[in-house]
Amino acid sequence: MIKTFSMTDVGKKREVNQDYIYTSEMPVGNLPNLFLVADGMGGHNAGDYASRYTAETMVQDIEESKETDPKVLLDRAITRANTFVYEKAQSHKSMYGMGTTVVACVLLEDELLVANVGDSRLYVINEEIRQITIDHSLVEEMVRMGGLDRNQARNHPDKNIITRAVGVRDTVEPDFFRVGLLRDDTFLLCSDGLSNMVDDEEIRMIVQGPGDLVEKTQRLIDKANENGGLDNISVVLIRPFDS
Using CA atoms, how far apart are residues 195 and 105, in angstroms rounded to an integer? Predict the structure, then answer.
């Protein structure tokens, strides 16, 4: 039986929480479930509008669609959200330049389908921790081209420059990933307020440590705040086979 828990926190330095979480263990339209994290960017109000509006638009689009292919559903929902956020940004001066990351997943019978735009992440955690998504960021491109190693990338001054986001341009192309399900897996969706503040091994130790999903989620957020809490922090934990 699937078990999940999610939480978002403003962090220690920000006045507004521009992250937005949506989770449903029950069907959403023709999807059997849906989980997503969006991390908004822009002016004081624009970032939280972009993330919330993206999530709400995606959910509405999926609920209204007769499409049955999960990948097509997610792709169309992200495309529609991108169009709406982009048009709103173009027509309202106070919202110009706003956008949001989005990482979303659907648990299917024998695999997890993941969609990603930006640098919010999805990890699979068991004896190891593995990042499934690939950040759409300047620093990630530098790492992939060999200009930086992973340790340098963690503290690079340009770490927050993302190269792909929902609502910034008139089109967007999400990346898709498929992950086979193993009985001991825990899936983590998070904004960079967690991944920038807590290293992967610390995340793995907390998720694999004692306690239920509520306690583990709270520990992850507490650790991010202990380490500085420089950004909003969002966490979604999913156990597909929790007995």
Answer: 18
